[in-house]
Amino acid sequence: MFKLYFKTAWRNLTKYKSFSVINLIGLTFGLASVITLSFLMYQGMTSNGQFKNKDRMAYVRTKISDGSVYRQTTYPFLDAVLKQCPQVEAGTHLQQWYAPWLKVGNKEFQDETYFVDSSFFKVFSFPLKYGKIQSILSNKYNVVLSEEEAVKFFGNVNPVGKTLVADDSVSLTVTGVMKSIPTNTTLRPDVLLTTSLLKDNKGFINNANWYNTFAESYLLLKPNADTALLNKQLNEIARKNYLSDTKDLYLMLTPFKDFVRNESGNLTNVMIKGQAGMIIFILLILMINLVNLNTATMYNRAKEVAVKKIIGSKRRQIVMQFCIENGIIIFTSLLLSLFLFYFLLLPQINHIIQSTFGKMVPDMQHDYPLLLWFIAGSFVIAVVVASYPAFHLNSLKITDVVKGKISGKNKKSYGRNIFITLQFVLAIICIGVTLILTSQIHYMKRAALGFDKENIITADMDLAFKNEKTAAAQFDALLNKLKNNPYIKSVSTSNDIPSSYSNNSDTYLDAVSSKKIHLQYFSVDAGLLPTYKMQLLQGENFTNIPQKSMGAKVIINEAAMKAFGWQNAVGKQISGGSGKGEMETIIGVVKDFHYANLMQNVRPLLLYYNGKQGLNAEYLSIKTDAQHVKAVGELLQKEFAKIPSRRTFSYELLDDKISHQYSLLDGILKVTNYVSLLLIVIASMGLFGLVNLFAKQRVKEIGIRKVFGASNASIVKLLSQNYFMLICIASAIALPLVYILMNKWLQDFATRIQISWLLLLSASLITLLIAMGIVLYQALKAARANPVKSLKTE
Question: What pTM did the predictor assign?
């Protein structure tokens, strides 16, 4: 029986070759896009999913009243939590205080390094390739390597027990090697060192108190822990020790499985929502296209169904026939789409996302649910698409079919019009979303940043100089040389610059009102404001302040001044550490500038002077002009080559650095444009096939009209006016939906466009032009046909 079904299905598919090819091409590219987007969404939604106790893992975040959130806490906080909260099974600090240079023989590397507690592997169940979990970080001088890092140092051998030297001074013993970490894991350390090792570091000792938030705290909760109660206890500990009078800060216990979505500045949320929306749109338009084309051809097959019913075929047999025909096309398309995904789309997508989210590597051991979803989804699509024409043809009277009293032009065409309208609705929504997304990204790139980004050369100063003392003197001499260079307008050294900041923050107390505000802070010199052309609204720069007084003088931004409730901030005094730090006097107010990306609001900021930090500065910034950028860059490379270091000096234009922040959004835009183009092509192919078939169904009617004197224009109007009306109806449905959906989506952006109706109407106009172009082509073709050919048998 099934052999007969397949033989009949194959005959029908080859009989209607054009429709079979249209369906096959549209489904192949459509399903390939669905597979790609599904893997992307699955990667984002299952990030950090490999940990054994992922549902019990949590971390602590600090939220400020202005809505900003950071995941640093004070260092003693975790110890207090472990002592006072019985619902916590284990906990570990995690911090990137610095990354030492590790050396074995002549091999020397500096890679992603985390300082963690001995309980780290109780919280994070990274599987080990070598080593014993019980004693892996039990000693101060233990080190754990990733599998890739171990190969770099020791090759493909077990390195446990071997020695590494850190910064040419401290010997470390390898006690474990972690297996390769999945690419969609947030924490992908190359090196794990113990926090005990940091206790010899003077900078760490000075900051490991209740007033400096720099350590991250991760917890493993006991089964069935009351998270609401625990969150309350965490805040009680914080209030007791360092947030006693601060109302604008509170702690949030956050599931670790939501880490990516919480820490990516809404970008992952935006991506997942967008991917889910695109998947739904593609599947809907594929199904509607298949239904439309099946509906268009079903009247040509009405007699076939009638004959089958006369000789005894039952309804389920006819439905099965249609399901197998559609199933052949869909499953063939699925195989082709998997091939297209793996060999064509996957490399392109990885090129877009690798720098931000890591490389996407399909692994059927973990990703098999997706493959099952694709197969099950294909089966559902085949059944749904086949059901409508099959059940409809079954409902027709056999006598009417045999006598030829039914055609595609009757009251049942209302159902077909509904599907065509729905297809136009989806096309308009897709084009509208693309136009708004394009406008939003271009708007963000053109938005005023509050500083001049043109012709500024930035350089990361973390070069690991081999002789710090000699290098410091050489660097100071170089700075003087640069400041006297006629091609250079200004020079600045700082620990933070716009687009690259360390997220350092503290709570500051107003000496008069005792109001406490949480401020981000930058360590800068007097050259930062002129180099970036930042506008001083009140007071003065650090330039004219005596050197001995610099440490007690600070500059704040507008947002900080508003947060404290001041009209004039110059002369006001504040103190950090919630009032326990040294008193600092505000000497100026700088106009708000975007030091983070434009998805975040400008937060209150403090600039403090640290102009004599020399090589301790993280960044060097140089303002020049367009014609001398290359010459200044070459000068820097030449001069830094004279200072021996482990890393090679490189520089980057600030404009490029800022543009890189939006590289992922640019990638999203490319994917969206591709999906939109794909949907338009699929819909256009379907519309082309429909109009062609309907013109053939009305060929005799058109011939008779022409015999009686109808003009080509009237024939074109007859065939196209219905589609024009359907597009108008689709626009009335789609445009409000686009406005509502995209307005909600844009709420994730701090800097955003306002959606104009002109932009929305453009989506309808583009759809109208494409659709009417296809319809007019087919209508003109039908109108110009010789009526003698269509009526010669009458």
Answer: 0.70
